[in-house]
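Here is one chain, start to finish.
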Amino acid sequence: MTIKLPGGHEGMATVRALPASSGQIALVQPMPHILSGWWTRTIGHVSLLGATIVVLLGIGVAYVMQANRARAADEVCEKVRDRIDSALNRGRCGLWDWDIGRGRIYWSDSMYELLGYERQDEFLSFGEVNAMIHPEDQDLFTLAEQLASASTSLVDYEFRIRSLTGDWVWLRARAELMNDPDDAASHLVGIAVDVTEQRGLEEKTAKADARLHDAIEAISEAFVLWDANNNLVLCNSKFQKLHELPADAQLQGKPYAEVMALGRPPEVQHQFLRREQQDVGARTFEARLQDGRWLQINERRTKDGGYVSVGTDITALKRHEHRLVESEKELIATVLDLKQSRQKLEAQTHQLADLAERYLDQKAQAESANRAKSEFLANMSHELRTPLNAIIGFAEVMQSGIFGSLGSDKYEEYCTDIRSSGEYLLSVINDILDMSRIEAGRTTLTKQPLEVHASIQRALKLVGEQTKAKNLSVSVDVNPDTIVVPADERALHQILVNLLQNATKFTSDGGCITVRTRQAGNAVNIYVEDNGIGIPDHALHKLGQPFEQVETEFSKSYKGSGLGLAIARSLTELHGGSLRIKSQEESAPSCSSTCR
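Its structure:
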């Protein structure tokens, strides 16, 4: 129990009965004395707990601080990684880490973006990457074997890899073989740069260099380019030939003195330097080669301090100049002769003027005589037609026996001859009259729309008896049947009749005549073809000329005045058309007349 001691302090009293007697034993102690051990243990436990709490708090604070540092470091690493990826993306390159032992490859994000792929896993397998490489380039197996056998640990080579779009991207890989101390594995770590554009530029540069070389080789002059140190950059074969340089010599990059030592340098004879050439560092001079040829060399300084030189072979020009000097002397002598001849020419000029006047007078007389001839023929033809008509008429009357029989069969035969001869003579006179009218300009045309097919049929009826008498087959091919042309009806009829009569006359018995028409724009082509005797080539130019015939008067076997084709040609030209004649001789009988 708790009791209060006499001094006013609290105490603890303990009473226990003694089992052997009825007595009791009591023990009284002050409260501080009782709690002193407990307080000692309590203070020790509390101190230990406090120290533990302080340690735990220190560890927690250190953990938080370390976590903050790690987070900050991760953020810094992430920023650095983003910056590196941005720099790599900007530079079109990516990082590689090839774990050769495990057969896995790590690509940076820039590498995926370069090829257009998306990251599916942290690592790529060896086979996946090797399948992307172009089959013509070195694969990863060969590279691994080289790394295993070679003493060097550096790699620098170019290859093609397929992108997501299927295009081939050229990469240049620069890597180094490194050993990882943590896992004792070999890693090939490096960077791969996109050199596709550089490769394209190299190809374009190579093509441009080839074009430039071909262009320089194609020029007719000797061309050479020297750099600022007077070393040869480029030259063509003509430069080598002119300086007798070996064709297989490697001249590029060699100095001028060494190049000239391989050949024969030209001997400079004359140098021409103009003021404008002084400003641009250019000069022009003539040089003589050992074999006697001459060169005109034009040199001009380039922007990099070198020289471009073009040599032109002027040997012919120098020879021409030499001949000019000699010719000048001859010219002086010739001038003296010309002065003497001038007086003779003046006298001949007066004579030519007199001859010209006589020619004009004679030409006027000839034209007047031609007009008089045409008028005479027209008048004579008109005068002859009247008695011929009477002769033909009386012959018909006598042949028909209107006023009685003549008394003998011979008289009828004579009347037939008189009638046929008169009709033939009348046709000749009519042709002469028509030709004279055309030449005199008295023929006028009255053009109206005419159907070509109808005009051809009328002309065929007129020559129908002649074709039947010679058993000729006549075919007409008019396409289309309704072709209409503006023409004079009488003139068109005469053109067609003359062409058909000419074809009938010169076609043997049993032959054929064909008439065809074809539309040609605004014009019409009329073809008259036959398989007659044909005309020699040398005589074709005579056809269509007035009074011109292929046969001579001694070998003539066909009657006619020779005016039929001339009248047809003239009437066709009056319509604004043309008449063309094509023919072959009897070996391949064919003759055609085309009227357009």
